[in-house]
Design goal:
The mean pLDDT is about 90. The longest helix is centred in the C-terminal third of the chain and has 12 residues. With about 80 residues, the protein is an alpha+beta fold.
Length: about 80
Amino acid sequence: MAVKIRLTRMGKKKKPFYRIVAANSEAPRDGKFLDIVGTYDPMQKPAVVTWHQDKLQHWLDQGATPSTTVKSLMAKAAAE
């Protein structure tokens, strides 16, 4: 089972809110996931990203691979 760290969409129509989750790579985007690693709210100015650093590090240590979007969010958070 390959684990990916990716976004799952929440919120209303035209008002997206995302959870950053660790999920099986074969699971659907908004389907079953293993753990919530953080949140991403693109509607706020500037966009707000929150992380559970211990959970994120745990999944990265277990071999989870972040999606390209999550990887860019991690890079932005590290730059700040």
